[in-house]
């Protein structure tokens, strides 16, 4: 049997469950999840291996109407992903009708000419999924349409089988022991940002960026990590630190728990909160935080 290998982009508006879908298909957490827009800001690759070959999933940021340079860079990242993959899975919330974001995504799909399928996620939120995706069908030429529940792991096997059918024959792109191409520092910064998203108010998450400043293995049982949390206003800094430092302590405790599971050893996590005004509109800081250049 000839092996198959290819790239599949997961695209959709914020909070439709793309990252949860990716994590469930791979059977491990490689992308952070939270009930806040812009949880995913970078393209994250996750690799599925089996006897049929290899599927490289590309989790992309949720598409919104750009409001500043960061949003422009995120949309440019999505457009590049559409050009570089073999199949696009447009993930939608099956419990809601299409909105402005879905129309925007469908326009991108039509312009790209890429092979696309429609995945109605969150089928656990509706009594019957029949007909729920009909309003989406006129938006773009989808090769397949199906309903799934990433939360309940329902319909995921059917989704993967459809992808195997659509992917071209080819040799694997990654070794069998590779599940993601994330770096350690990226994983750490995302783990910290996930806890901030979970613990803070709506005004804070969009303005947060995290960088790992230092990472040292101090012994066989201890790793030291120093990271900086950047926000745009001093009021946001005060929220993250909290009364007598309690919020920052909570964020650190929750993150450390995940990192200790990841490393299998004790983690000393040293967090600092800094203010960098309007960083989302400053090219130099966007580059420092690892967001790709937007297309001209």
Structural topology:
Elements: E1 4-11, H1 18-26, E2 44-50, E3 53-59, H2 69-84, E4 87-93, H3 100-112, E5 116-121, E6 142-147, H4 156-166, H5 184-199, E7 209-219, E8 222-231, H6 234-241, H7 246-263, E9 266-275, H8 283-288
Parallel strand pairs: 1-3, 1-4, 4-5, 5-6, 8-9
Antiparallel strand pairs: 2-3, 7-8
Helix pairs in contact: 5-7
Describe the fold and architecture.
- This protein has 296 residues and is of the alpha/beta class.
- The longest helix is centred in the C-terminal third of the chain and has 18 residues.
- Helix 3 links the parallel strand 4 and strand 5.
- The protein has two domains: 163 residues, Rossmann fold (3-Layer(aba) Sandwich); 105 residues, GMP Synthetase, Chain A, domain 3 (2-Layer Sandwich), CATH 3.30.300.
- The model has no long low-confidence stretch (mean pLDDT 86).
- The strands form two sheets. A six-stranded mixed beta sheet has the order 2-3-1-4-5-6, sandwiched between helices. A three-stranded mixed beta sheet has the order 7-8-9.
């Amino acid at each position: 049997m000839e092996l198959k290998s290819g790239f599949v982009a997961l695209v959709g508006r914020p909070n439709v469950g793309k990252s949860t879908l990716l994590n469930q298909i791979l059977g491990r957490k490689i992308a952070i999840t939270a009930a806040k827009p812009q949880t995913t800001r970078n393209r994250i690759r996750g690799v599925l291996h089996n006897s049929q070959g290899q599927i490289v999933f590309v989790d992309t940021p949720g598409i919104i109407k750009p409001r500043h340079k960061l949003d422009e860079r995120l949309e440019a990242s999505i457009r590049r992903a559409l050009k570089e993959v073999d199949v696009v899975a447009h993930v939608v919330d099956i419990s809601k009708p299409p909105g402005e974001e879905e129309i925007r995504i469908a326009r991108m799909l039509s312009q790209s000419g890429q092979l696309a399928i429609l995945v109605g996620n969150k089928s656990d939120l509706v009594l019957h999924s029949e007909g729920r995706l009909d309003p989406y069908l006129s938006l773009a030429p989808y090769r397949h349409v199906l309903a799934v529940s990433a939360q309940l792991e329902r319909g995921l096997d059917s989704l993967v089988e459809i992808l195997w059918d659509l992917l071209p024959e080819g040799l694997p792109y990654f070794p069998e022991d590779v599940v993601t191409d994330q770096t350690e520092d990226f994983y750490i910064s995302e783990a910290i940002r996930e806890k901030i998203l979970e613990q803070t108010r709506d005004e804070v998450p969009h303005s947060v960026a995290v960088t790992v400043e230092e990472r040292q293995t101090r012994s066989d049982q201890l790793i030291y990590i120093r990271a900086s949390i950047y926000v745009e206003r001093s009021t946001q800094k005060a929220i993250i630190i909290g009364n007598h430092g309690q919020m920052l302590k909570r964020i650190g405790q929750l993150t450390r728990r995940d990192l200790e599971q990841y490393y299998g050893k004790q983690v000393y996590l040293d967090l600092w909160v800094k203010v960098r005004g309007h960083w989302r509109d400053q090219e130099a800081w966007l580059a420092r935080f690892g967001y790709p250049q937007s297309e001209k």
